[in-house]
Amino acid sequence: xxxxxxxxxxxxxxxxxxxxxxxxxxxxxxxxxxxxxxxxxxxxxxxxxxxxxxxxxxxxxxxxxxxxxxxxxxxxxxxxxxxxxxxxxxxxxxxxxxxxxxxxxxxxxxx
Amino acid sequence: xxxxxxxxxxxxxxxxxxxxxxxxxxxxxxxxxxxxxxxxxxxxxxxxxxxxxxxxxxxxxxxxxxxxxxxxxxxxxxxxxxxxxxxxxxxxxxxxxxxxxxxxxxxxxxx
Lengths: 111, 111
What we know:
The complex is a heterodimer of chains A (about 110) and B (about 110).
Chain A: E1 5-7, E2 10-14, E3 19-24, E4 29-37, E5 43-50, E6 55-58, E7 61-66, E8 71-76, E9 85-93, E10 99-101, E11 105-110
Parallel strand pairs in A: 2-11
Antiparallel strand pairs in A: 1-3, 3-8, 4-5, 4-9, 6-7, 7-8, 9-10, 9-11
Chain B: E1 3-7, E2 10-13, E3 19-26, E4 32-38, E5 44-52, E6 55-58, E7 64-70, E8 73-78, E9 87-94, E10 101-102, E11 106-110
Parallel strand pairs in B: 2-11
Antiparallel strand pairs in B: 1-3, 3-8, 4-5, 4-9, 5-6, 7-8, 9-10, 9-11
């Protein structure tokens, strides 16, 4: 399968701690994207990182991409209860116009 | 700014009944449009995508179909629903090599 795979499947941490989620994929990509989904809602686009980029930041979010290892990580610093959600990575493979989503990481922030 | 509308929010239909879900996008021209289905607690499965009016690519053989009668309108249909069609249906749009933006979703229950 070409789809990205997130690790861990579930993560529970205390408010204020940092949360790290990982994503691995199998073939060359154009870009990799991270999304958040609150329960029962649509997905929200967080960050897009292109294959020639290694790191991007957006507020408390930091995404890294290692194309040699075909992996990416999403770091959420100083977590808040409102960060509780499922996080998905999605990849756009070279020559394709579609995203392929992983199964997601369910993040729970405990107050 | 761009807005994506999707309706209805919830739908309960009997097995064998027809289906029509509509998605419209405002504030952008010639977007790529996508229909996804998400089973409970799982990732997204791409059903159809469209790069222009009348152009539909099907990803998964099934009893669903899609149409794009106008530039910013994407419709998901079925002539006869199956129990296995239950799920959370999400419409999304994108432009160029950028992230996808999702609608609020339709929760479909087939009884």
